[in-house]
Amino acid sequence: MAVNVSNEARGQWGSKFGFIMAAAGSAVGLGNIWRFPYITGQNGGGAFVLVYLLCVILIGVPLLFTEMGFGRYTKKGTIGAFKDTGANPIFMGLGAIMALLVSFFVLSYYGNIAGWTIGYIFKSLSGSQVPFEEFAANPMNTIPLMGLFTLITILIVRKGISGGIEKASKILMPVLFLLILIVAIRSMSLEGAMKGVDFYLNPDFSKISGQTFLVALGQAFFSMSIGWGIMITYGSYLPKTANIVSSGVWVGMMDAGVALLAGFMIFPAVFAFGKDPAAGPTLVFQVLPDIFNHMPGGAIIGAFFFLLLMVAALTSSISMLEVPASYFMDEKKWSRSKSAWVVGILLFVVGIPSALSQGGSAFFSEMSVSVFGSTYTGFQDILDFFFGTFFIVVVALVTCIYVAWKMPIKNIVSEIDMGAPGWKPNTFASNAFVFFIRYVCPLVILIVLLNMMGVFGIFGGGG
């Protein structure tokens, strides 16, 4: 039974455009610009892009509808949404609680990577030639920068829903999109850049495997904020008149669009400068400075780009902080300010090992874990596998099964119907949605999860 909570008590999005920008801000971040290009390079270029787009359209968007509808139906964050609809301990543990832990632990190392973007603002302006490896290995760089980023995140979450992130997102997300487009055009004008475009867009179908699909699906979850509890929490602040269908489609389109543009920004430059397209997560920090050095006013453009990249990371980090913070607000009746400060400070402490894992500490840099036939080295990479890949897939599967089979699904169909002209029970659109959420999405996610666990083969990469 959903519990009604007044809009004034919980906060509410001020407009449809504001919600779309905020939700897209959650989806569009380092998952698109930092992560998408390097995993595309590691998984064969165009073949991976094709599989990724199919995952977004057929799996990602229906799951966005599901999570947004679930949140608005209950008017609660992820813990309250499951609890108030009568979830048993299994669904509570693997759905609600695990979603909260995913947002918390991913944000703990995400803050470290976002701190790098702050550092690169000043590196661009000063003309510093310090190599990335040396920069990331220095704790005097990484820990204070991570602390600064975490502090900014806390201060914005304290301001509430419409008064904080929504206002900023309306301006910053379109500007970020435009700037990435400008840099992509410049990148493609470099000598030798078309080899990169060919690598990026020409699919080699021999490279498509179960692993390709797994990594693509993990990327869709990572960048679209599915399986984190974020869209459940953000959906809980939606008015009943909001159109979940059009909002979900817009969020999915913007998320995939920025990811694709990031590829056009990275790969032409990778080939033009003779770098390795499978270089890993540092690719964006190695390639972009070279691009800016060949652009008029490159120092200022570079600084502005990393500023906006930091903002893109910030809109995502706010949504991740909101998930555990909303738990304390909804279930423990803490004030928003207290919730934000307590969770944020704990995040900073938990994030320190990640900040030391790029060479700052031998212990955290060299520690390794072998699981499902693969070995992950470094504290940050270990967290990224478990919470940035594996548990996201688990949460998405559990949430999908719970909403489709236990709630029951008609509650979410009716919820989505509010504010969505043409979306009525027993129409083609709603029946197709029910079919995908009940059968297609759970089956596909289950196969991917079993493959990750080595049932169909050895899983060889993260999402």
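Above is the first protein from milestone M3; the second protein from the same milestone is given next.
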Amino acid sequence: MQEYLLLILNKLGVEATPLIILIITLTLIILLSVIIHLFLHHVILGSMKKSEARNHKFWRQILIDHNLFDRLSFVLQGIIVHVISSHWVVREPEVLDIILLCAQIWILLYGLLSLFALLDTLLSLSHMTKVASQLPLRGIFQSIKLIAAIFIGILIISTLIGKSPTLLLSGLGAMTAVLMLVFKDPILGLVAGIQLSANNMLKIGDWLEMPKYGADGAVLDIGLTTVKVRNWDNTVTTIPTYSLISDSFKNWRSMSESGGRRIKRSIKIDATSVHFLSPEEQQNLQNSHLLTSYIKNKVTEINQFNNEHNVDLSLTINGRRLTNLGTLRAYIGEYLKAHSGIHKNMTLMVRQLEAGSEGIPLEIYAFTNTVAWVEYEGIQSDIFDHIYSIIPQFGLRLHQTPTGSDMRAMVERLG
């Protein structure tokens, strides 16, 4: 190119000094770079953006939003400048070395940024698929970005000092301890992310409970160093990724996938209200369609036992008899079986726990047929509303610590 310029200038009668030729050559390179830039960014990319505005294709919009094509065009500009300069500035090796050095650094930097944009694009596209959206890809991509940044940084330094990258890599051995300290969290996060993904321990959208960090809500993001959890009060808690491996946490995903959510709650019965059912009470409770079969079969079983053992029923303590507490347990069990909100294929029982100073705990253990929080609480509340209201029908009382009104009523009676 410089020889061609020299020939043209000589024909025009212009004194062609090496400096003038160099200036003209550099001017042409700059003009060519500007033309290429305008063509790539304003013509090609401009037409793509206009086409996207008309077609509204989601994946093309993602490519544009993350500036992937913009950064690739800068890489292409650097390559073109590198190639042209190596052919046009051959007579000035010192200037050529500077231009080529700048072009190489330009290519490396925008190549790294293009890789970042590509990974961001893939991450956004992965959210469109159900399987990929559940994987902790953000942490993996952040790890790739970190490794790529270190690698490109080494290449840039080796380019500036004119040494082989292997020389720098060999010198990193002495810096291993320092690098481990500086990049401790990313390294631990990378290992934790791999384990979480490989063992299917945590996914985006899982209900995570980790009291140590005040986390109780849905997982928003699994990053290289932190995991974001949106708590049920709409606050956001960040947890170090590696702590999910070193500490214990509760993942409610299995509950959500099972289709049933557990009810495990007790009511406290006043022990002094427990007694044997009288014939009148039996007859009254037998009118309940949920207890008709139970009382009939239980009375037959008890009478048969007492007759076989010649039990003297003149004393209350002799033989077997129906109790109001046992009948209440049977009633609640039948009520839960008939309830439309209870899962019929999961554990269902009503059991009596060890009595204490707060009465006799009667525990309801069952599963709803929904895992939605609002629906679950509605079903649970409906069940216990009914249980609290029917307890007096069995001659039982709930245990309750005396309140101020109870104490005033007692004083009034004594007065």
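Note on the second protein: Residues 2-196 form one domain.
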